[in-house]
Recover the amino acids of this structure.
């Protein structure tokens, strides 16, 4: 059946009231051999890095399928013929979002090719939990070369990854946010300059995510804070967690709008990022005002569905849990989509001592899964200022802990490029700071430990006191074998080699091999 027949008027359905709407089509325009030809054409023209990523760690049944084919141009034209203005086309959802009057929506709903017409939900950027303030003298961490960012990276054991050469080199990180200042001094290093391989402004439909004429003065602020935690490289001042990575920048939020985040921009940006080879995607956005906690089941919200598809193509997705706070009732939650995603890494926030931040949102999901899952510094996180080209800032919120987690995931991806999103999640959860997941769904698995995540065995600093391979480590290990594990001991405990068999001869052999410097057997 042709497109014209598919789009012939049908019995009118109830139109949506107010706002932008999604138009979901019943099928793609092509079928049979034509569809197979269309899929083959998409694959042939796809970004080589994206094809390689899909082949390496994708979990979809086919490398490319019908969901990769563009929405039928004929069906989109039929929607336009009603007078509606198309904003976003989503191949993954087989849908378009449109601005339309009530009469136009009714006409769209009457088209035979249309499956459903639903409102585009809007949400909120996860605004800073505390006011962004200028940062003064550097607060040096373990090494002066990291400057202000030393403590927040050391808390995740990320400098140990950098020492091994894992800085995110060869990895592409997508950021979905408000816009980005790229003329800051920390991005101009001759050794590690900021590298942007693709960008798209989904608000103004252009290819500039920087400061544009007519932008609100705060349009680029939040995105710049996020980019600074990831990509900065100014030794002694500020070093980002994944300074060796390349970036895909997506401007998705209009800060002047009453409802600044619209999920169609998010979906379009995620498809754009995946198509341009994103290995990691980070976002600090939340859609909750138009969804209920009952919808947070990992399968319902449009943004959550899009994240699930991206993960099936091998993209490691990170998102903020939110700044709605938490309680000690495990039956209540304060999540927003896509933090409920099945394969997304949902990030909460702690202070410099590893204590959960009061604003950090809790889970569980509607179907009882642990959220948030990992934690990073989200209280006075150090980054760059957005007001000039030299300043530095301290900001708080799960918005800031999330790109730190994404930086660690990028470095782990460089070290373990074949890990699927499921394998990445399992590794970092098993190696995070807490011995068991939080039954109150506030801390998840604890603070991420990047260097430990890439090694299936534990560390020779078994008791995690900073002294490696001492008698105290041996005593703590054997005490753990006897069922008396210390609270700060290696997260795998008596299952030292992480093979699922607890306290075996293999664990003892692995411990002493690591202790002697031989590495994990």
């Amino acid at each position: 059946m042709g497109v014209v027949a598919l789009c012939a008027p049908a019995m009118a359905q109830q139109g949506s009231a107010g706002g932008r709407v999604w138009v979901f089509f019943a099928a793609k325009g092509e079928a049979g051999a034509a569809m197979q030809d269309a899929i083959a054409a998409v694959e042939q023209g796809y970004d080589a890095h994206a094809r390689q990523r899909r082949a390496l760690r994708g979990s979809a049944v086919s490398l490319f399928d019908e969901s990769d084919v563009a929405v039928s141009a004929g069906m989109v034209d039929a929607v336009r013929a009603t007078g509606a203005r198309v904003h976003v086309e989503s191949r993954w959802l087989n849908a378009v979002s449109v601005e339309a009057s009530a009469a136009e929506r009714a006409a769209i709903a009457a088209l035979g090719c249309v499956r459903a017409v639903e409102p585009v939900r809007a949400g909120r950027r996860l605004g800073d939990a505390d006011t962004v303030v200028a940062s003064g003298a550097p607060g040096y961490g373990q090494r002066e070369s990291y400057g202000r960012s030393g403590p927040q990276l050391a808390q995740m054991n990320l400098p140990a990854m950098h020492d091994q050469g894992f800085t995110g080199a060869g990895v592409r990180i997508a950021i979905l946010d408000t816009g980005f200042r790229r003329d800051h001094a920390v991005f101009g290093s001759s050794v590690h300059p900021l590298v942007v391989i693709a960008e798209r402004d989904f608000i103004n439909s252009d290819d500039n995510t920087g400061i544009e004429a007519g932008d609100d003065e705060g349009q680029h602020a939040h995105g710049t804070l996020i980019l600074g935690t990831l990509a900065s490289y100014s030794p002694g001042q500020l070093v980002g967690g994944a300074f060796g990575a390349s970036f895909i920048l997506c401007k998705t939020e209009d800060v002047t709008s009453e409802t600044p985040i619209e999920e169609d921009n998010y979906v379009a940006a995620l498809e754009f990022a995946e198509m341009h080879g994103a290995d990691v995607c980070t976002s600090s956005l939340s859609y909750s005002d138009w969804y209920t906690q009952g919808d947070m089941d990992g399968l319902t919200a449009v943004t959550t569905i899009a994240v699930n598809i991206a993960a099936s193509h091998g993209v490691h997705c990170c998102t903020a849990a939110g700044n709605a706070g938490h309680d000690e009732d495990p039956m209540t939650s304060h999540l927003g989509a896509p933090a409920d995603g099945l394969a997304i890494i949902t990030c909460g926030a702690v202070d410099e001592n590893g204590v959960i931040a009061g604003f950090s949102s809790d889970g569980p999901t509607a179907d009882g899964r642990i959220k948030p899952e990992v934690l990073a510094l989200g209280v006075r996180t150090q980054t760059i200022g957005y007001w000039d080209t030299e300043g530095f800032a301290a900001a708080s919120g799960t918005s800031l802990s999330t790109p730190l987690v994404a930086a660690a995931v990028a470095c782990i991806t460089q070290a373990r490029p074949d890990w699927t999103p499921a394998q990445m999640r399992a590794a970092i959860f098993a190696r995070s700071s807490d011995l068991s997941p939080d039954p109150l769904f506030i801390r998840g698995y604890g603070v991420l430990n990047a260097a430990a995540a890439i090694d299936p065995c534990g560390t020779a600093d078994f008791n995690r006191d900073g002294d490696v391979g001492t008698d105290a480590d041996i005593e703590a290990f054997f005490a753990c074998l006897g069922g008396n594990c210390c609270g700060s001991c290696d997260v795998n405990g008596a299952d030292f080699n992480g093979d699922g068999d607890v306290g075996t001869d293999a664990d003892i052999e692995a411990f002493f091999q690591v202790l002697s410097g031989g590495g994990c057997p």
User: Anything to note?
Assistant: The chain has 15 helices and 19 strands. The longest strand covers residues 85-90.
